[in-house]
Design a protein that fits this description.
binds adenosine monophosphate, 3 domains, 8-stranded mixed sheet, BirA Bifunctional Protein, domain 2, 16 strands, alpha+beta, elongated
């Protein structure tokens, strides 16, 4: 049997690939208005970056990373030999850690300078169980802002994300913006301890993963999708009761900026998100169409004031989010949004016999140079078959070249819809054409 693509991956064919291009274009045009400019980082990084950045107890790091070794090291691993940890690489499961590394490594932050605002788009890789809206390779668009801890940065980023969703056609009333704060290094430890105590007290009622989380990552138990866990955790201590004054003030200001921008939100004290690096603001955008409840988040992010220091850079506050392209597409399809189709060529060059092919080839090139999309017969078809092909491609006009036309110094232009024909002089053809089509 022919080899198929790996499970959980997708081929983006014509209209979908076009939509992905358009999606990124809308994103980068919009983000530029907020001062975010594009950045591209490698799709693989040293595994260590993700372990330290995302957190070694997170699901992403423990269960979902695709980790690779280069050829020689693979042979060593198979032979049971040691491979140094800095020779292990992972396909990026998310964009933030790589971007933060790139900003540090390239010295983009200047002491006392303006925050660095960057945006990216590209594939991410997670070894999850594939299902609708959950792939092993998927595309994210994301932004990161490093070097400012002001709550206006958080609010501005959230507003920009909501504006993007609206710009691609997701109506406001189909989205819910959930917000929460996770506190910081000063107030979170006490909350973590309280949560740990609560989990241990209720261990018998919780799933095994949550029992383990008491030690490794108690906040994640708030996120568990098991029904029993959701019920038990709804009675757990709330972060709001543990926040220090500065975290309380930061959160209040984020909300007041959102109010000022007229962006509606719902406070969700159980929202923790999957990655360890978040401090203070976290948020998620959920949709009510196209996906079941476990996969209804189309984007989310938050503040990560300790991440840069965690991966070895200077202590620098950061904020960012990522959205999932495939999930947005599922939502748009469920809403009945018309997807983009490739534009058909405006013109098809048809030759009566092989003698005119070189001339047609030259004219086609002239047309393309002049910005006119055109097609040419590459298979030596009969004239009739060339017309059929032009019709199939959806070309509005066919340019016919035969011995008579060449002798008269013209090209016969046939409108495929009306069947009207007109002659266009060969001399300066592309220029003449731009006046008639
Ligand atoms: P995260 O990095 O987990 O916060 O994810 C940000 C966004 O990426 C989510 O809201 C989803 O829209 C999308 N996403 C995350 N994981 C997947 C996946 N496995 N397949 C498709 N989209 C995903």
């Amino acid at each position: 049997m022919a080899i198929k693509r790996a499970e959980g991956t997708k081929d983006l064919l014509a209209s979908e690939a076009l939509f992905w291009t358009k999606f990124r274009q809308i994103a980068f045009d919009l983000f530029a208005r907020y001062g975010y400019s594009p950045i591209e980082t490698p799709v693989f990084e040293k595994t260590e970056l993700f372990v330290r950045g995302i957190g070694e107890a997170t699901d992403v790091v423990t269960k979902e990373m695709f980790t690779v070794v280069s050829g020689g090291n693979l042979a060593k691993l198979i032979a049971g030999e040691h491979v140094r940890s800095d020779s292990r690489f992972s396909l990026r499961p998310e964009g933030t850690a790589g971007v933060v590394r790139a900003i540090a490594q390239n010295g983009l932050l200047q002491e006392g300078g303006a925050p660095v605002k960057v945006a990216y788009a590209g594939p991410m890789f997670r070894a999850e169980r594939p299902q609708n809206g959950r792939q092993r390779q998927f595309n994210q668009v994301g932004i990161e802002c490093l070097g400012a801890d002001d709550p206006s940065i958080d609010a501005e980023g959230i507003v920009m994300l909501m504006r993007f969703f609206e710009a691609i056609g997701i109506p406001q009333d189909k989205m819910t913006l959930l917000v929460n704060t996770l506190g910081d290094a000063e107030c979170r430890p006490a909350y973590r301890d309280a949560l740990k105590g609560y989990i241990l007290d209720h261990a018998g009622e919780l799933c095994e993963d949550c029992q383990r989380r008491a030690e490794t990552n108690p906040l994640r138990a708030l996120d568990c999708k098991e029904e029993a866990c959701t019920r038990v955790m709804s009675g757990a201590p709330r972060i709001g009761d543990f926040l220090c004054d500065s975290c309380k003030a930061h959160y209040a200001q984020v909300k007041s900026y959102l109010d000022a921008a007229g962006v509606a939100y719902v406070e969700d004290p159980t929202l923790v998100r999957g990655l360890d690096y978040y401090t203070r603001t976290v948020f998620e955008v959920q949709v009510s169409v196209g996906m079941d409840n476990n996969q209804n988040a189309i984007g989310g992010g938050g503040r990560y004031d300790k991440l840069m220091a965690e991966i070895g850079g200077n202590d620098t506050p950061g904020f960012g989010w990522a959205l999932g392209y495939e999930r947005c597409k599922i939502v748009l399809e469920a809403l009945g949004t018309q997807m983009l189709e490739p534009e058909p060529p405006a013109l098809y060059f048809a030759c009566v016999d092989a003698d005119q092919r070189a001339l047609a080839f030259r004219l086609a090139q002239q047309c393309r140079d002049a910005g006119i999309a055109c097609e040419f017969d590459h298979q030596g078809r009969s004239l009739k078959a060339q017309f059929k092909q032009a019709d199939k491609l959806g070309c509005a006009q066919v340019a016919v070249l035969g011995p008579d036309e060449v002798a008269a110094g013209v090209v016969k232009l046939r409108d495929m819809a009306t069947h009207e024909e007109r002659e266009v002089p060969l001399e300066g053809f592309a220029e003449n054409l731009s006046h008639v089509i």
